Amino acid sequence: MDYRRLGRSGLFVSSLTLGTMTFGGSGPFNKVGSTDVAGATRQVDMCLDAGVNLFDTADIYSSGESEEILGGAISGRRDRLLLATKARMSVGEGPNDAGLSRHHIIRQCEASLRRLGTDYIDLYQAHEWDGATPLEETLEAFDTLVRSGKVRYIGCSNYAGWQLMKALGVSERHGFQRYVSQQIHYTLEARDAEYELVPLSLDQDCGILVWSPLAGGLLSGKYRRDKDATEGRHVEGWDEPPVRDSDKLYDTIEVLVEIAESHSVSAAQIALAWLLGRPGVTSIVVGARTDEQLADNLKAADLKLSEDERKGLDDVSAPPLIYPFWHQLKTASDRLGPADMPLLGPYL
Predict the structure, then answer these.
(1) Number of Cβ within a 10 Å radius of residue 323
(2) What pLDDT, on the 0 to 100 scale, is given for residue 235?
(3) For the chain, which terminus, N or C, has the lower number of CB atoms within 10 Å?
(4) Is the pLDDT of residue 21 over 70?
């Protein structure tokens, strides 16, 4: 297992993280998984044995049940691992039961600590943007939690580039704790993050955690142009991520499967290995309905792709150059910096 520094911090995290959205299974999350405490304990065991040290959850997953199950699964060995959770989504019917207000953040942090059975959270993340709450209030609340010892580091998730950059600026101006990471969706199926979020991470030294790295199972090899999958999130109605270009998706899957067959591994392992080699990526959040799926995903940490294999995947999945990037390629390619290269480098 590889360990990578998390953004502008001194914390090192494993290149694979266990995601626990499959723990619980109540409400709409039953389309993702329904792992109980016994199953979660087995998966935690497997991950610790493989060298995984970061475990990610959220207060919204199965209405808090995921945190409770994870807390039970790590009981007695809290010091062996890092815990990450999130807050922002609606947890009730009241007007203050959602968002990133001081009220909601501190209240949800305390609730997560109880469910997880711990007195501190290693990485506490804003789960989504809140345009109704001043960033100063949000970041001051996170800062208070860090200074109180209830939280070690803070991060965000699903921010746009300007939103994250503004947050980093507000933290610097006021001396608040800074987001050390962003958790984003980034896969061979959807490389939108390369427009703004990946360059921002490289420029600002903000670690990238990737959620749903197999695009909800679309890149697992189960979904093919010439046959329908019989199981999986998308079969059962889970609609993340949206597929905007099915032909391009299936073209990408064909290349994935071809490379996987040459290595005698799963297509999922190839997709994960590709991500692990992308600039700015710190850790990939993997989750699984079954122990067999998890064991397969964990093997990706040791898989190395050749330059030709990477180029084949890069070419088939390349995002179109939207403005201003096509213009920068045409008129500014003589003075590009390291943060520009993940998107524009292949076109030079």
Answers:
(1) 7
(2) 44
(3) C
(4) yes
Residues in the chain: 348
Report the percent of the chain where pLDDT is more than 90: 91
Distances (CA, A) of 47 to 54, 67, 127, 207, 208: 9, 17, 24, 21, 20
DSSP letter (8 states) at residue 227? B
- Tokens standing for residue 346: 């292949």
Alpha-helical runs (H) found in 28-160: 37-50, 65-73, 102-116, 135-148
Phi then psi dihedrals of residue 328, to 5 deg: -65, -40
Contact 308, 327 (CB under 8 A): no
Which one-letter amino acid corresponds to residue 105?
A: I
Confidence at residue 226, expressed as pLDDT on a 0 to 100 scale:
81
Domain 3-310 has CATH 3.20.20.100: yes
| Other Cβ atoms within 10 Å of 343 Cβ, number | 23
| 309-345 confidence digits (pLDDT tens) | 999 999 999 999 999 999 999 999 999 999 999 999 9
User: Measuring CA to CA, how many Å separate 65 from each of 23, 31, 112, 291?
Assistant: 7, 15, 10, 20
Contact 143, 137 (CB under 8 A): no
* Domain coordinates in residue numbering, the chain: 3-310, 318-348
Token pair for residue 240? Answer: 């993340």
Give the C-alpha separation, 68 to 152, whole Å.
20
Instruction: Based on the residue annotation, tell me whether 195 is a catalytic residue of this protein.
Output: no
* Beta-ladder partners of 121: 151
Residues 6+ apart with CB under 8 A from 283: 4, 6, 13, 14, 15, 16, 17, 54, 207, 209, 210
* Beta partners for residue 182, in sequence order: 156, 208
Residue with token string 């694979």: 16
Choose the catalytic residue: 61, 124, 186, 223: 61
CA 85 to chain centre: 12
DSSP state string for 160-195: -HHHHHHHHHHHHHHT---EEEEEEE--SS--GGGT
